[in-house]
Structures are given as structure tokens and as C-alpha cells.
């Protein structure tokens, strides 16, 4: 699995460096030898960052916990539907 984390200005201001650190720590902690993590330039999703690219697929609104779950292969949680009053 190849993971690239955007560390340009907008994503960096949203602490994307913590995402890189978290993935690196998870690699060691869970012995994830197939995970390769790098930084990358802006992916064009600055307003909905931080963004990462996982095997060519851009993912946005990423935080360190979400990144950790992706790297470990855990399924992403679906967003809850807003409550509708009947
Ligand atoms: S700075 Fe990260 S997507 Fe633009």
C-alpha cells in the first residue's frame, strides 16, 4: 500500500505532519511492512484537506485516526444521517 500525505500549506496548517507521524508509528507498532508512506505536493483539495493519496485514490478530511484505520485496513465508518423530525 502506497500512502502519500499532502504537506503543503493548507494541509500543513491542518496538521498533516501528525498524519505522517501516525502512519510511521503504526508501521512500526503493527509491523506493516507493505505500507510505504511519503509526502506529496498539493492534490488540489485544499478546502477539504488534509488529503492523502492511497494507491492512487485521493481521500479528504483525513485526521490521524482515520489515516491509521485506512493503513490497518479497517473499514471506514459511514457518516451518520442527520436527524429528521417527523
Ligand atoms: S495543500 Fe493539501 S491539498 Fe492543497
Query: Please, what is the average pLDDT?
Result: 91
What would you call the shape? globular
The description of the largest β-sheet is: 4 strands, mixed
In the sheet with the most strands, the strands line up as 2-1-3-4
What is bound: which ligands?
Answer: FE2/S2 (inorganic) cluster
Q: Which fold name fills CATH's third level, the topology?
A: Glutaredoxin
**Discrete helix count:** 3
Instruction: State the distance separating the first and last CA atoms.
Output: 45 Å
- Percent of sequence in beta strands: 15-25%
| Radius of gyration, in angstroms, nearest whole number | 14 Å
Strand and helix layout:
Layout: E1 2-6, H1 9-13, H2 16-29, E2 36-40, E3 52-54, E4 57-59, H3 64-71
Parallel strand pairs: 1-2
Antiparallel strand pairs: 1-3, 3-4
Helix pairs in contact: 2-3
In short:
Strands 2-1-3-4 form a four-stranded mixed β-sheet, covered by helices on one side.
What does this protein structure show overall?
- The chain is α+β, with helices and mostly antiparallel strands and 86 residues long.
- The protein has a single domain, classed as Glutaredoxin (3-Layer(aba) Sandwich).
- It is 31% helix and 19% strand.
- It contains three helices and four strands.
- The protein has helices at 9-13, 16-29, 64-71; strands at residues 2-6, 36-40, 52-54, 57-59.
- It has a four-stranded mixed sheet with strand order 2-1-3-4, with helices on one face.
- A hairpin with a 2-residue loop joins β3 (52-54) and β4 (57-59).
- α2 (16-29) runs parallel beside α3.
- The protein is globular, with a radius of gyration of 14 Å.
- The model has no long low-confidence stretch (mean pLDDT 91).
- The structure holds FE2/S2 (inorganic) cluster.
- FE2/S2 (inorganic) cluster (FES) is lined by residues 6, 8-11, 42-43, 45-46, 49, 51.
Amino acid at each position: 500500500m502506497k500512502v502519500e500525505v499532502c504537506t503543503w500549506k493548507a494541509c500543513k496548517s491542518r496538521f498533516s505532519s501528525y498524519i505522517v507521524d501516525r502512519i510511521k508509528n503504526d508501521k512500526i507498532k503493527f509491523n506493516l511492512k507493505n505500507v510505504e508512506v511519503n509526502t506529496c505536493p498539493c492534490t488540489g483539495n485544499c478546502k477539504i484537506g488534509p488529503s492523502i493519496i492511497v494507491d492512487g485514490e485521493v481521500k479528504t478530511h483525513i485526521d490521524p485516526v482515520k489515516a491509521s484505520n485506512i493503513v490497518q485496513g479497517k473499514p471506514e465508518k459511514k457518516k451518520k444521517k442527520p436527524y429528521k423530525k417527523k
